[in-house]
Amino acid sequence: MSNEKKQVILLVEDNTDDVDLTIYALKKNKITNELVVMRDGVEALEYLFSEEPGGDGKQKEVPGLILLDLKLPRINGLQVLERLRSSERTRLVPVVVMTSSREERDVRETYRLGANSYIRKPVDFHEFIESLKSVLHYWLVLNVLPEAGKGGDDERTAAHPAG
Q1: Would you tell me how many other CB atoms lie within 10 Å of the CB of residue 69?
Q2: What is the pLDDT at residue 13?
Q3: Average pLDDT over residues 78-82
Q4: For the chain, where are the E strands, in sequence order?
Q5: Under 8 Å CB-to-CB from 11, ≥6 apart: which residues?
Q6: What is the model's pTM?
């Protein structure tokens, strides 16, 4: 399937340094997928659920992976995650929470709301690059999701094996 279009990666992150580090890590790991950056929860939800420009009633393509920070302005990451999982359109999109939060309640709530993974942002630069490489390789290369538009309850377990 070499003529497959590469999936978009949506990064929802308000810290400019973390955005720059993620961009660098993508380049360093030769990940050429388009990266769309949203700086807060409201922007992310507008991006995911608004119609394409031109008024034809079509929504933007759903990303292949969402990297989501929890500590966001306006609407926090947990609220974004809850909205993602409540929509048929985005329910199966892999969401990797990447946050500096060390709060156990954040970890529990993140998984309760349906995140696929919870990664504490490492302080070490090289550790961050390797972590992101592993995450992207798994979710964009190895992981198999159901085809878009194919209904059924079995789809949820494909993206969320634990629940």
Answers
A1: 25
A2: 97
A3: 97
A4: 9-12, 35-38, 65-68, 95-99, 117-120
A5: 19, 22, 35, 36, 37, 38, 66, 67
A6: 0.81
